[in-house]
Design brief:
The protein folds into two domains: 174 residues, 3-Layer(aba) Sandwich (Rossmann fold); 95 residues, no CATH class. Helix content is 37%, strand content 12%. Strand 9, helix 13 and strand 10 form a beta-alpha-beta unit. Helix 2 runs parallel beside helix 3. About 21% of the residues have low confidence.
């Protein structure tokens, strides 16, 4: 294997990234540690991988996340120092949130600075992550009481680049109202090889989804997402599910002629809402909005959520200004308005750009990052 992937905290987005790289890029071999005891992983993972990663003349590239102390690993394994070393930042320890500055352990940020110095390429998942790290190095190093090193930012910055975290977006078109399908088509239409939905499932779907019968799969998924409050005009959940599946299988046919409303009489056609694709017509607007606190924004918006984020940190880089708030009072007013007019959210079509975060758009950049000509001394 020519690409050595090392992940000292194999969970969450860290796991998602290296799994995707191993799945989509040829000649990768992965070594990991479980995603627990983060502080001990940052302190001792290099020693563990020094003993675990076998020597090989086939390695050409080393890819590791910023949890690993890369400087220690290279010192312990000089053979790995000859490789092209790519160091990826999911987050940086110079500004990672702590309640008080005194609570920040100097060692973790120091480890990341040393790792950047020995890396050949330093990659950040956002411009905010990169700039906040680089511009904090000088202030951070002033914590050293004397004999402080100088010009570290200038040494590290030329190695740095931004490469957004890649998301292989799942196919959620069957769950979305018709007016939001355009965003999905634009996102998955980005240039890339293969089916953008391949090998990707929603969190609530079974792992063996690919081998399941399509009808059973839809039935299970719809039961999972059908959590809206019942209104007086709603029919039974089985009838609602049947109508929703019918609308999915026959998008060009009107369902109004195929179903009737119990509250309006058996002989009258039941109106199907164009916004949420559920029977009951305008009654769906009486249902309460659901507020979610996602750990993965770039996925939540893709699945139809309306983003409402602080005008700080990385959010201005990701979302247009209309989705940002500056004060708690602004947030309260926005939520209050949405509660009074839920149709504002339900009918809204996201105005930002999602394709730039898709694996289809980013796969070429990651492939280039993980390719190199062999060095003469290998």
């Amino acid at each position: 294997m020519s690409i050595l992937l090392i992940e000292a905290f194999y969970g969450g987005s860290h796991k998602q990234l290296v799994d995707l790289l191993q799945e989509e890029i040829e000649d990768c071999i992965l070594f990991t540690l479980p995603a627990k005891k983060w502080h001990w992983r940052a302190r001792t993972a290099a020693l563990y991988f020094m003993q675990t990663v076998p020597s090989s003349a086939h390695y050409r590239i080393l890819f590791a996340s910023s949890v690993l102390n890369l400087a220690e690993l290279i010192a312990l394994r000089p053979d790995l120092g000859k490789l092209k070393k790519v160091f990826y930042f999911h987050e940086n320890q110079l500004i990672y949130p702590v309640q008080k500055c005194q609570e920040r352990d100097f060692q973790y940020g120091y480890n990341q600075i040393l790792s950047c110095l020995v890396a050949d390429v330093v990659v950040f998942n956002s411009a905010y992550n990169m700039e906040s790290f680089l511009t904090s190095i000088g202030k951070f190093m002033k914590l050293i009481p004397d004999y402080r090193p100088k010009c570290l930012e200038q040494l590290i910055r030329p190695k740095c680049q931004v490469l957004y975290f890649p998301v292989k977006f799942p196919d959620v078109r069957r769950f979305l109202p018709e007016h939001k399908l355009a965003l999905i088509e634009n996102t998955v239409g980005a240039k890339g090889n293969g089916n953008p939905y391949r090998l990707m499932s929603l969190p609530f779907q079974e792992k063996n989804e690919r081998t399941m019968d399509l009808t059973k799969n839809r039935d299970s998924a719809m039961r999972s997402v059908d959590c809206e409050t019942q209104t007086e005009c709603c029919t039974s959940s089985q009838e609602r599910l049947h109508d929703l599946l019918t609308a999915t299988r026959e998008p060009n046919e009107s369902t109004s002629s195929k179903s009737t409303s119990h509250c309006q009489g058996e002989d009258k056609p039941r109106e199907t809402c164009r916004v949420c694709r559920t029977p009951g017509g305008l009654k769906c607007q009486q249902k309460p909005l659901h507020i979610v606190w996602p750990h993965r924004w770039i996925e939540a918006v893709y699945c139809g959520c309306y983003p409402l984020c602080p005008k700080a940190l990385v959010y201005p880089e990701m979302f247009p200004a209309e989705y940002l708030y500056s004060t708690p009072e602004q947030l309260f007013k926005r939520l209050q308005n949405f509660c009074k007019r839920p149709d504002i959210v339900r009918k809204h079509l996201y105005k930002g750009e999602m394709a730039q975060f898709s694996w289809a758009a980013l796969c070429g950049k990651f492939r280039s990052l993980l390719t190199t000509e062999p060095k003469e001394d290998l």
